[in-house]
Amino acid sequence: MKSMTGYGRATAALGSFTLTVQVSSVNRKTLDLALKLPSGWDALEAAINELVRKVAHRGRISINVELTGVGRGSELAWDEAAVGNALDRLAQLARARGLAFAPTPELIWSVVNSQRQSAEMPDPLESAPVVTAAVGEALRAFAAMRAREGEALLIDFLPRLETLRRQIEVITGRAPLVPAAYREQLLQRLRQADLQLDVADERVLREVALFADRCDVTEELTRLRSHLEQFAALLRTEQEIGRKAEFILQEIGREVNTIGSKANDLAIARAVIELKNELERIREQMANVE
Predict the structure, then answer these.
(1) Beta-carbon neighbour count of residue 46 at 10 Å?
(2) Domain ranges across the chain
(3) Closest of 29, 23, 35, 9 to residue 290, by C-alpha
């Protein structure tokens, strides 16, 4: 079992630049990739997305690939003609809008630096092996963190499952006693109304039999146990379990609701409330599971 939240980071040297890859994720029912690459590196997007899909199936995953540092010999890489052309175009744009154009040192430096960076940016296709290796390293750290958090979630789930089992056993032990309790209540009400009927009276027996049929939860308990064992087994698998687990929890909730509506008994009602409370806690935690 894996959590949907995680983080991984890796760095690598790329020429005179430092390549940094950061991968992080938050909860999401489907897989949603958000990739940020240096300008002009869009050609690497498909390969990086494919690497991510191999280790994650759910969650909003953000991958940030950035270059930092200044290339060697950068002072020689300034293209004065390109800088001049850029300034001329800015001047034309200002005149077309009736604005005065007086370039400041900060503006000139910004234009110069943008031209230098463009000239020095490593070629994305030539850099692909280094980039994919760094992405792979970040994803391994990312997957390891998700696995550790998944283990912590499993530790939290196990005692909650035991709570569910205990409440199911409470219901199992109490359910056969409900018809007899109803018969005693029925007879008591009849006596209070001065209607003396024998316990073996056909009308009493028929009423008790109908009640016993309406409140019988044997089938619901059988399905409930089956769903719970499926859920427990699912938690031990290494594959994506989130969607299937949510479906099983939904089915468990359905059976619990049916038991609560059919079993006209205070002890069973209390057990149903405990089941619902614990199920809600499990659902909240399951929202973090891939």
Answers:
(1) 9
(2) 6-71+122-146, 147-286
(3) 29
Closest CA to 24 of 50, 47, 45, 3: 3
Say what the pTM is.
0.69
| pLDDT at residue 108, rounded to an integer | 83
The predicted pLDDT at position 238 comes to: 78
H or E stretch covering 250: helix 242-262
Provide φ and ψ at 288, rounded to 5°: -95, 0
The amino acid present at 210, given as its one-letter code, is L
By three-state DSSP, how is residue 81 classified?
helix
DSSP E strands, the chain:
6-14, 17-26, 31-36, 59-68
pLDDT at 76: 45
Q: How many other β-carbons are positioned within 10 Å of the β-carbon of residue 111?
A: 18
CA gap 87, 78 in Å, rounded: 14
Written as six digits, the tokens of 235 are 């938690």
Residue of 267, 235, 283 lying closest to 169 (CA atoms):
267
**Phi-psi domain of 204 (left: phi exceeds 0; alpha: psi -120 through 50; beta: other):** alpha
**Closest by CA position to 58, among listed 203, 245, 232, 201:** 245
Considering only residues 191 and 121, tell me which one the structure prediction assigns the higher pLDDT: 121
- From 69-83, 89-103, 117-131, 250-264, the region with the lowest mean pLDDT: 69-83
Instruction: Please state, in angstroms and rounded to a whole number, the distance separating the CA atoms of residues 274 and 272.
Output: 5
Q: Tell me: the pLDDT tens digits for 46-100?
A: 999 999 999 999 999 999 999 887 544 444 456 778 888 888 888 888 888 888 8
For 143-167, the pLDDT digits (tens) are 999 999 999 999 999 999 999 999 9
Residue-level length of the chain: 290
Domain 6-71+122-146 is in which class?
A: alpha beta
In Å, how far from its chain's centre is CA 91? 52
